[in-house]
Amino acid sequence: MSRPLVRLAVGIGDPERERLLLPSLAESEHLRIVDRCLSADQLLETVASARADVVLVAYDLHRLTSNLLADLDGTGVPRVFLVQDVEDPKWQVTQGVVLPVDADVELVRQGIDAALNGERFDLGRRDGHVKTDEADAHVAQESAPGELSLIAIASGPGSPGRTTIALNLATALGAVQPTVLVDADMAGPSIGAQLDADPTRNLYMVAHAEPDAPWEWDRSIQAEVQPLERSRTPYADVLCGVPKPDMRSRITRRFLERLVDALRRRYRYVIMDTGSELLGAEGAVHRAAIGLSQQVLLVCSSDLVGLWRARTTLGLMQTHLQIGTDRVALIVNRHDPRFHHSRAEIEWALGAQSACVVPYDNVAAQRALASQKPLVLGRGPAARALLDLTERLHGGKLVLPPEQRRQRRGLPRLPSLGARREQRAS
To answer: Are 135 and 166 members of one domain?
Structure first.
């Protein structure tokens, strides 16, 4: 007896995901794709009109809210979900088969059969998912709670180069691990301008979406992040800052806490570029970002005024934020040994250790700004110093080793002018 024809309604939304799955599913003898829906509303309409026997839907389908998901459950049509995290409690209580979003065609076919038969689908016994579990375990091992993953880049007032440091650190880390750079500067966000990124995809739009469930956070973040530089740093994304002052009120401490939790589920490193203002209402988000971070990198210029401002900022962190010097490391920027104090003298004066001393390299910096590309993608002493910082940070050794004291070579003793005259007279 031949199997009856099964009508499948698809709500995947992502063109690349559709390209990988739908052609092979359409070749099945007993399966026919009756509708490719671009939104949850369209999918619900197809199911409600009894045109589908089973549904394949992705977690990030457009307009797939909690209410629409409940309406879809109420239809009673068997469902197969492609989700980011199969261990999320939201999906564990969902009626239907739950598969990882990167499931292959064979695994999707098995899930559809299980949904039609009302069977429990055990992912742990499928070879395709065992590999996913191993990959997830590997990522979890790399981003264990005790390891450094959340870093705030701070500075005092002025222009010490904080955003440049944050941008280049995220670029270098993104070459080896999933990394996101968040422009959390409420006073003057500028990462979008430095990269020529789309300013309409930004932090405010994530808050405006009002995500609640983890899958809603994942979908909102995915819609707003942009690739930093895919050709050279394939794992780095950027989330631009709030474009207008009147939008800042939507960014609260509670929102930032939930955003950070969602980002840490997706990325190995989260780099936050915070503003210089730490006091008053304008500095609330900056204080929250610094307080949430595991490590604070305080950027200061090498001149006396920049060091004085850095000492003031360190004092504010200790008195107002209760952040000790063990969580703060200095990045001394634009250092020129001809005019500036040595690293040892700077550390002694500020009472903090250094993570990096970036040499003064104005030509490379101006070239990077003009091309709207990160500095570390080029050459020069500043790029080498930032790459060295990245290697030490990724290796778990952030602070620079003690500076070796150089012995001054003795200058040859020159004869006095009087001795020269005596030699000439003789």
So the answer is: no
